[in-house]
Known about the structure:
- This protein is an alpha/beta fold.
- The chain has helices at 4-19, 32-44, 61-75, 91-104, 117-130, 134-137, 156-166, 182-197, 202-225, 234-238, 242-255, 263-274, and strands at 24-28, 49-54, 78-83, 110-112, 143-144, 147-148, 282-284, 288-293, 296-301.
- Its main location: cytoplasm.
Amino acid sequence: MNGPLALVRTAVKRFLAEHAPEHVTVAVSGGADSLALAAATARLAPGSAAVVVDHGLQEGSAHVAERAARTCRELGLRAEVRRVVVSGPGGPEAAARRARYAALRPDRGVVLLGHTRDDQAETVLLGLGRGSGPRSIAGMRPYDPPWGRPLLAVPRAATAAACAELGLRPWVDPHNADPAYTRVRLRTEVLPLLEDVLQQGVADALARTAAQLREDGDALDALAEGFPGDRQSAADLARLPPALRRRVLRLWLLGAGVPELSDSHLRRVDALVGDWRGQGGVWLPGGFVARRAHGRLRVEAVQS
């Protein structure tokens, strides 16, 4: 039977074969997931690079980042450390994520991220708990250019075991044990309880559910792209099933410059068609408002 290291390598090999990126960069935190990914990439895609993001949120973070970069160089990757400033709305987790992704975004090629099957399960549970719609419950995509996630079908335990096989010593982020973070409680309390109550296999089942929803969502998105009617005509839109209509509306709103849309936003705009009672406009992110007048929808920027 193949061991954990072979499992990681096989996942990376399949990803590289399927997508054949022109240039590969690995995002490395120093934890087991990203180190196992870096080791497999160094073996399978010689000449690849690694980027370590130092968020500067913990004492000694510069040392941790340089140690991770040094390990990547020893594995055969070109490695650099990029320090970021974490600030902005949404709490420390969201601010750190924004800063990290901005620092990692490449000029070309793909950036490999070490998200595992367990991370996918946590993402699905977060989406379910927040009622944020099918796109959220569908979880992370294995390939969402420029981001690649080869390990989404690999359990977190396998990356730690792979590092042990290679003699690598991963860094253990103390934030990963802090119950102040929602994901930590999901990981340490909720998922173990679900595994106990439902007799194991929950993380795998949640990951499969996410994959099924992505497939369904992609099919509906393709139908929305090919919608032959007028995306602003209430009469044309009213002929569509709600799930498809909301996707048509989403494409129209994004094309009009609305920067981001939650399921709640889309449902309120959809009500201008499917539950029309003469209601007023719907306020949207980025200072936009969607309205209905004379049987047509329109979206406009609000003058400040």
